[in-house]
């Protein structure tokens, strides 16, 4: 195997690592006072500040939207009924959390 082939093989073997290095993470918690706090980030430790977050009802209608603050947090008033939190870090990087999974 010549140097060019070896370099190409090495580059190909590292591609799966690069695609997994920036996995979005988001967790939401019911504060018990009528509000919900969501915290976000990435698997490589980078901040989620500015990442879009939306809350949608069971029919997919947007109830509210905003962005993670400088501490990678987003707090909102808990809606009535079933809803989902959508942490949208870009194409292929959407994390959805159902209201039934948000506990105190």
What can you tell me about this protein's structure?
A hairpin with a 5-residue loop joins strand 6 and strand 7. The model is unreliable at 4-10 (pLDDT under 50). With 104 residues, the protein is of the alpha+beta class. Helices cover 17% and strands 41% of the residues. The protein is globular and about 35 Å long. A 4-stranded antiparallel sheet has the order 4-3-6-7, with no helix packed on it.
Structural key phrases:
7 strands; alpha+beta; SD-repeat containing protein B domain-containing protein; about 100 residues; 3-stranded antiparallel sheet; signal; 4-stranded antiparallel sheet
Strand content: 35-45%
How much is the radius of gyration in Å? Answer: 18 Å
Alpha-beta classification? alpha+beta
- Identify low-pLDDT runs: 4-10
What's the order of the H and E elements? Answer: HEEEEEEE
Main sheet makeup: 4 strands, antiparallel
In round numbers, the mean pLDDT is 86
Tell me, what's the shape? globular
Q: Order of strands across the biggest sheet?
A: 4-3-6-7
Our measurement of the CA-to-CA distance between the termini, rounded to an integer number of angstroms, reads 58 Å
Total beta strand runs = 7
Secondary structure tally, helices? 1
- Relative helix content: 10-25%
């Amino acid at each position: 195997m010549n140097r060019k082939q070896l370099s190409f093989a090495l580059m190909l073997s590292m591609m799966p690592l690069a695609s997994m290095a920036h996995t979005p993470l988001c967790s939401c918690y019911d504060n018990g006072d009528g509000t919900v706090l969501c915290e976000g980030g990435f698997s490589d430790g980078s901040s989620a500040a500015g990442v879009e977050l939306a809350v949608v009802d069971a029919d997919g209608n947007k109830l509210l939207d905003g962005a993670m603050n400088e501490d990678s947090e987003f707090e909102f008033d808990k809606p009535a009924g079933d809803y989902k939190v959508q942490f949208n870090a870009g194409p292929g990087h959407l994390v959805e959390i159902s209201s039934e999974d948000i506990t105190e």
